[in-house]
């Protein structure tokens, strides 16, 4: 394990003020215009009695992208500019530590990524949280600007021009809370699902004096897990309360970030995995977070901020006609499907029960047709020797998988379950195995069929509870080689977005699986038609 060299914050100066905001910029002149505006007194509210400063640190930007002191200071007398010049480094960790050392605040708000725009009461509630739960750290919740998860949306037409039109449409910055109209939570989460990272984290100076600032061994471009490491280290102290702000957010603008704005999903996953490995090398274990219950401060000032996984609000801002309409006919350019619309569509089809009437060659198939289409594409492109399916139900999906294998003249299907019906469809490419899928004796029987080194695709079905899904994954994922998949079906249940009362199920199992298996990552490409009962459930083995 590498040693940690953590620079300690200096003691507060005699002319100390309430708050120092440190924000780092690298080739972000477009984004900085909004970020700095959102930190100004002209935008932030209820700060009349608060003395604060903003230190903008330039970390090696190209000449045409440099902000310059005149530009930064034009946002108000609270703004200061530091250009690291030749001391700039690929990681923002050093730049943040420079800002911490230069700051006069008794508390800090640390922003590792200068592409974030804040809502109008972030600074007020950040300070309120530090006071209310002292000693504490306060994490601002992360959002994306745009119709969904930004990296995925970029593959379907989302870019800076699209984003600029969104900001113009809400007439930002007249009402900063209208950001919720054009944004989405980062990840499949909501206000109450915990915080793994914050781009605007409030920390008392005395904590940085005692445990240090950013770990500069996180020296890769973008910083890797430097921000997560600081959040975990500060929040893990026994006496520290971890708090977050309800109804406020930090909104990430698209700018070509090293990982966040990498449109190639495989490359994005590879980079994030590399960051996790680097963290483990430095700390001797993987990132796990502070592991504490969150405390809350704030209020819901905007109706559009009332969004949660159980309460999706379709953002009309992204709908047809939001901008100048395309000529009637085939669109000239692709547009991303708004995430809220996608989830509303899944819920509407679920409620219609139309999916319960689908058949394949006369046998019921209780699957979304687009999921079946995705299965055939994965079988055709990956050509697994074996398809291992748990929870075959009435066998219609099993027959569909065998039919595809027959059409491509490759592959066999093994369907595993307890209490299998006598009238399951027969096919020369189907073998049924009776038994609890995760039981040792059942796995041994399947192993005897597929051999010691199978090239398999695994499909875990049956709307299983979280524990059952995890057990079946552990049993059969070793049969999957790099490039193939474990497909966890029915992740839509438990409010994701359907059947909110189901309880922890496949979706929650996937979260646990990904946390413990760095060799697997979610592939969203099979979901590109937007209608799926397996959101986030296509797990590709990457190594």
Task: Give a short overview.
This protein has 543 residues and is an alpha/beta fold. The chain is built from 15 helices and 21 strands. The chain has two domains: 17-306, Spore Coat Polysaccharide Biosynthesis Protein SpsA, Chain A, CATH 3.90.550; 346-541, Vaccinia Virus protein VP39 (Rossmann fold).
Question: If you had to describe this structure to a student in words, what would you say it looks like?
Answer:
The protein has 543 residues and is α/β, with parallel strands linked by helices. The chain has two domains: 290 residues, Spore Coat Polysaccharide Biosynthesis Protein SpsA, Chain A, CATH 3.90.550; 196 residues, Vaccinia Virus protein VP39 (Rossmann fold), CATH 3.40.50. 30% of the residues lie in helices and 17% in strands. It is built from 15 helices and 21 strands. The strands form four sheets. The chain has an eight-stranded mixed β-sheet with strand order 3-2-1-4-9-6-10-12, sandwiched between helices. Strands 17-16-15-18-19-21-20 form a seven-stranded mixed β-sheet, with helices on both faces. Strand 13 and strand 14 form a beta hairpin. The chain is elongated. The mean pLDDT is 91.
Protein topology:
Elements: E1 17-25, H1 29-39, E2 52-58, H2 69-73, E3 79-83, H3 93-102, E4 105-111, E5 116-118, H4 122-132, E6 136-139, E7 142-145, H5 150-154, H6 160-169, E8 183-185, E9 201-204, H7 205-211, H8 226-235, E10 241-246, E11 250-252, H9 265-283, E12 295-298, H10 339-352, E13 359-360, E14 363-364, H11 369-382, E15 386-390, H12 396-408, E16 412-417, E17 430-434, H13 440-450, E18 456-460, H14 466-476, E19 485-488, H15 506-516, E20 520-522, E21 538-541
């Amino acid at each position: 394990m590498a040693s940690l060299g953590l620079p300690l914050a200096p003691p507060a100066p005699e002319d100390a003020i309430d708050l120092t905001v440190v924000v780092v910029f690298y080739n972000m002149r477009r984004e900085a215009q909004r970020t700095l505006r959102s930190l100004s007194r002209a935008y932030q509210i209820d700060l009349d009695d608060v003395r604060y400063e903003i230190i903008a640190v330039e970390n090696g930007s190209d000449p045409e992208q440099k902000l310059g002191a005149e530009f930064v200071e034009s946002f108000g007398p609270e703004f200061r500019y530091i250009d690291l010049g030749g001391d700039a480094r690929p990681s923002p960790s050093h730049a943040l530590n420079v800002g911490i050392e230069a700051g006069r605040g008794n508390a800090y708000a640390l922003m590792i990524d200068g592409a974030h725009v804040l809502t109008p009461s972030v600074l007020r509630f950040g300070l309120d949280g530090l006071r209310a739960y002292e000693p504490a750290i306060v994490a601002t919740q992360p959002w994306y600007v745009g119709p969904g998860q930004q990296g995925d949306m970029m593959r379907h037409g989302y870019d800076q021009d699209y984003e600029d039109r969104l900001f113009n449409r809400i007439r930002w910055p007249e009402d900063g809370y209208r950001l919720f109209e054009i944004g989405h939570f980062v990840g499949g989460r909501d206000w109450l699902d915990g915080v793994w990272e914050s781009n605007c984290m409030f920390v008392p100076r005395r904590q940085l004096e005692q445990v240090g600032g950013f770990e500069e061994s996180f020296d890769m471009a973008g910083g890797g897990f430097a921000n997560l490491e600081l959040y975990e280290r500060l929040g893990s102290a026994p006496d520290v309360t971890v708090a977050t702000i309800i109804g406020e957010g930090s909104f990430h603008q698209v700018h070509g970030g090293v990982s966040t704005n990498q449109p190639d999903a495989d490359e994005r996953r590879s980079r994030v995995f590399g960051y996790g490995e680097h963290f483990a090398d430095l700390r001797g274990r993987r990132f796990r977070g502070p592991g504490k219950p969150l405390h809350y401060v704030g209020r819901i000032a905007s109706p559009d901020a009332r969004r949660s996984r159980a309460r999706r609000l379709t953002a009309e801002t992204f709908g047809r006609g939001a901008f100048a309409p395309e000529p009637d006919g085939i669109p000239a350019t692709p547009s991303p499907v708004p995430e809220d619309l996608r989830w509303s569509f899944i819920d509407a089809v679920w409620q219609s029960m139309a999916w319960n009437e689908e058949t394949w060659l006369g046998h019921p198939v209780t699957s979304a047709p687009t999921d079946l289409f995705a299965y055939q594409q994965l079988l055709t492109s990956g050509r697994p020797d074996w398809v291992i399916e748990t929870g075959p139900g009435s066998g219609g999906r099993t027959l569909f998988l065998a039919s595809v294998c027959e059409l491509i003249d490759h592959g066999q299907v093994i369907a595993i379950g307890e209490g299998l019906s006598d009238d399951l469809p027969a096919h020369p490419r189907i073998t049924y195995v009776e038994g609890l899928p995760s039981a040792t004796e059942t796995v041994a029987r399947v192993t005897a069929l597929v051999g010691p080194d199978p090239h398999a695709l695994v499909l875990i079905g049956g709307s299983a509870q979280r524990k059952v899904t995890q057990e079946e994954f552990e049993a059969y994922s070793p049969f999957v080689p790099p490039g193939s998949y474990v497909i966890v079906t029915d992740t839509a249940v438990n409010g994701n977005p359907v059947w909110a009362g189901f309880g922890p199920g496949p979706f929650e199992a996937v979260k646990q699986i990904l946390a413990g298996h760095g060799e697997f990552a979610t592939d969203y490409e099979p979901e590109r038609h937007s209608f799926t009962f397996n959101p986030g459930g296509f797990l590709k083995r990457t190594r």
